[in-house]
Amino acid sequence: MDTEQLITILDSPAVAREWFQSLSIKDMRQAHDALTAIAESGMTLDLVAITATQLEHALPQTAKPDQALSYLAKFATLSRSPIALGSLWERDHAALPTLLVMFSASIQIAELLMQDPEGYDLLRMTDGQPVDRKILIDEIRSEVLNLTGDPDISEQLERIRNRELLRIAYGDLVMNQAPDVVANQASILCEAMLHSVVELASLKAIKKHPLDAKDAAGLNFSLIALGDLAGNQLSYGTTLNVFLIFQSSDKKELNEQFYHSLLNDAVSFLTLASGIKLLDIDLSFQLSAQSSVTVTHINDAIRFLDFSGRTWQRQELINARTIAGDLQLGHRFLQHMEKWIYRRYLNRADITGIKAQKRRLHRWEECDQRDVVNAPGGIREINFVVPFLQLINGGNFSDIRVRGTLPAIYQLQKAGLLSQEESNVLRDSYLSLKRIHHRLQTLNDVSCTAIPPDQTQLAALAQSLGYNGAEAMETLQNDVTHLLNVSQQIIDRLLESSFDDEQEAEPEVDLILSPDPSEEMLREVLGKHNFKDVHSCYQYLMDLATERIPFLSTRRCRHFLAVIAPRLLESIAQTPDPDMTLANLSTVSDSLGGKGVLWELFQVNPATLNLSVKLCSNSPYLITILTSYPGMIDELLDCLVLNQLPTKQSLQKVMSALVKGAQIEGQELIDVILAFKHAQHLRVGVREILGKDPLADSHKALSDIIEICLQEITNEHYRQLVEKHGQPIIEGGPLHGKKATPILVGLGKLGGQEPNFHSDVDVIFLYEGEGNTQPVRRNHKIRPTSNHHFFNELAKRILQTATRTRPHGRLFDMDSKLRATHQYAPLAISLDDYETYMNKGQIPLWQHMGLCKARVLFGTDTAKSRIQALIVKTIAAGNQNPQLKAEIYQARLESEEGATDRNLKRFQGGTMDIEYIVQMLQLLNGDVEDIQQPGTLMALQKMQEHGLLNQDDTAALSKSYLFLRRVESGLRLMDTTHRHDLPDQSLELEKLASLLGYESPQSLVTVCRRYRLENRHRFEKIFRR
Q: How many Å apart are CA 90 and CA 94, to the nearest integer?
């Protein structure tokens, strides 16, 4: 083309259109503007004409002619000397086509050339040739270290990176270098930059923490690479997986915080002021129980991997290599871990983990079949299966312990673990797919992995890869499909021959063992088990799989959890609130420690699994006990082994042993008693949840527990007061000169031996007789006092000890205002004074009714007989009041005030209806001594035997009382705020129904309503007859 033709094209749109069409240009206006810009850049018209002539030959051969011409115009405009540029194109006929290839291939590369037009000269000089690792690392290191003190270090690092990326891309696009060469050069570049910034950060740290020459030279840390960087097989823009380990030093400044700061500085050097990262660095490889830790002491890292390392981490570490810092330290670490990675003999946990890895390959997540990286048979799968084969065979074949996919394929074939055909297919597929991936990244974006559906983009890709002709795009697509298919066939064959599974594993197992489950997998597996917040629940599962005690093996723990996971999650799914159940199980297992043992127990004893799920679902009270006392797991197992409730005699033996142990170890008595109460409550509560005992027997056991605790507290404080004041002695009367002992009389639910887990402990304090204390031995420190003062001090101490709030709660709720006579009386009075008060016959109704449930808990046999006779006599005198029935009826109606219809105790038809019926009949028939039973159910039975109640009323009232008290017991196990009210929240009501074995909350509410209606009907009938 001569200058006249050029001028005609520039001046005539019609001529220009025809010419541009011959160059495969689509956007005529943009192309005309570009040619005009070149002509106006300062280049002479004859050089422009020569350029146009070369465009006629080169532009149609490029993948994106419009893009190439547009960037060529910008490049000429930005050139320092457009005439020199044109002259270059005139002399070197390969220079312009080379630029067009670069501009057409990638917007990113084109922009890099726009930023640094002189970089083009460097490209021509180096011709994109690969650079030796040592040379490039030394060159970049020297250049970077010269930047020390430069406020724009990040910008300078960006310039270095861009320069080298242009060289690599030039070798890829123009020189058509092999994909493994391109990947190796990209890996060396990233390694060199990391090596340099780490050294730069070290210098900064040394300056910040003044260190002498010896300490400065001996910074004991290593930066270790994983994945594609370690295997020298990076693509453009691939994430760099690294971690940092360090060795302790005598210098206290060289600690974890020091190296953490050093690593942060290194990363910050690779981050521009705008926040753009020059390299995408991933520091998430876990070497500590705390996932947020980014630097780890070498000993801690080794210990963590030994005890908690997972199979995928073993596979990740196959390629690991040290890229910065102390090479010897890194080598020592990796050499030690090699024994952990490659095992000649595999245990159950190893085999389970390897099988899970295998299933991950078989169940590769659904993706675009045109995706050269992620589709089955793609780069990702090849990069996964090759280390997998190394992992399972490396224990026996040391030669296959190499880094990188291609070297590993070669060594696997050499060791006879791959056939020649398998080796060739995997290698050729890998290289071909890698080449396509590189072109996808340069033509589109570094994140692009799939063949584009857009025809224009597909045509550009095909042309860039050298496909020509009308069927270029179809041929490319067919080639990609073939590569993926043959690769997948080989991979499937290899997997089928290793650890062949006859039985398909449950997805729950793979969820536990998967290093990074997808969102779809979480929703599919956890969603079907009724979990709502799948992310939180997955984290709870990971907590269950992790041992908190350092010397216990997390790998073993995870293995046994995976084994029971299907059954465990299925059981949890049946609970009203699976999310909360799993959260509670996580809390309980954390407090117990030794989770692996617990999961193994669940495997061999499914009843333990079901029990634990029930506890975590419906019994916050028992959960609190388990978490407060980790050793309570033994009590939990005893509930399954021992087929009975604890007897009073067995409880006394346990308490005696605990007290003796506390005296030896110097423990505080109340802590021992509190632990005893909780342990026994756990036993009773678990058996109640399992439905192993009648409710009356459970109440009797809970009453015995209270009595044993009170007895021990009373004995201890009595002994302390005797040491302080001497032995109380009775003066006067038939017991003159005898020791005075305390008497505790239980009232209410305790007196009737029918308390629940949180019933108030109502006790009145008496003592055998008045008198004074006498020293038991010569001791000038003893301060004698009256029996009255002695026993009131004893009662005060018992109340304080029982009701004081401690770290694990209080022992009992006791009413300190309750007195034997009236509210202004002393806490404790003598038995004579109590008898005098009773004989006056002026006691109020509430005390009369309270005596119906009175029972002596503590005292001598003589005192017990005397008090029992006094109680029977006082009750017998109650029928002398002609208004007694009316007064009790009115008292019951007044007790209903403030109670909602959800209250199972005080509202109409509640348990108080039945208790008031019993106490009314006891007081009206006080002369019938056989019916004076403190327990409601036993009293009902005796009343039927004596004809005071018919069989129908007795059966109905007994059944109703047991039912309502059972519901009340469920409420106490749930630890609800309102002790006697059905929950007003639907979820809590559903939990209660589940605990009690009802299919639905509504059915429970309906049964409660029916029982209460019948109770009120019988209450009215019996009181009006």
A: 10
Mean pLDDT estimate for the chain: 89
Residue pair 582/531 in contact by the 8 Å Cβ criterion: yes
Domains and CATH numbers, the chain: 346-496 (1.20.120.330), 508-675 (no CATH), 881-1025 (1.20.120.330)
∠ CA 286-397-421, nearest 5°, is: 100
Written in H, E and C, the secondary structure of 676-688 is HHHHHHHHHHHHH
Query: Are the C-beta atoms of 197 and 329 separated by less than 8 Å?
Result: no
**Rounded CA gap, 301 and 149, in Å?**
34
Helix (H/G/I), strand (E/B), else coil: 409 = helix
d(CA 568, CA 609): 7
Give the Cα separation of 181 and 184 in Å (integer): 5
Residue 956: pLDDT band with limits 50, 70, 90: very high
What interhelical angle do 420-443 and 153-173 show, nearest 10?
A: 120
Rounded-to-integer distance, Cα 450 and Cα 454, Å: 11
In angstroms, the CA 192 to CA 138 distance is 8
Beta strand pairing call for 742-747 and 295-297: unpaired
The half-sphere exposure of 961 on its side-chain side, counting CA atoms within 13 A, is 25
Q: Would you say 285 and 293 are in contact if contact means Cβ atoms under 8 Å apart?
A: no
Helices (H), 690-781: 695-725, 748-751
Residue 530, burial from CB neighbour count under 10 angstroms (0-12, 13-18, 19+):
middle
What is the distance between the alpha carbons of residues 127 and 141, in angstroms, rounded to a whole number?
Answer: 22
Distance linking the first and last C-alpha atoms of the chain = 127
Helix (H) or strand (E) holding 855: strand 855-858
Residues 6 or more apart whose CB falls under 8 angstroms from that of 985 comprise none
The C-alpha atoms of residue 884 and residue 868 are separated, in whole angstroms, by 22
Range of lowest pLDDT (107-111, 554-558, 629-633, 966-970): 629-633
Distance CA 795, CA 820 (A): 12
Helix, coil or strand: residue 772: strand
Does the CA dihedral 812-816-821-827 come out positive or negative?
Answer: positive
Which ranges constitute the DSSP H helices of 896-935? Answer: 911-924
The pLDDT of residue 530: 93
The confidence score (pLDDT) of residue 287 equals: 87
d(CA 519, CA 542): 15
pTM: 0.66
Phi and psi angles of residue 768, each rounded to the nearest 5 degrees, phi first? -70, -30
In which residue are the tokens 């989770």 written?
595
Closest CA to 744 of 687, 807, 794, 787: 794
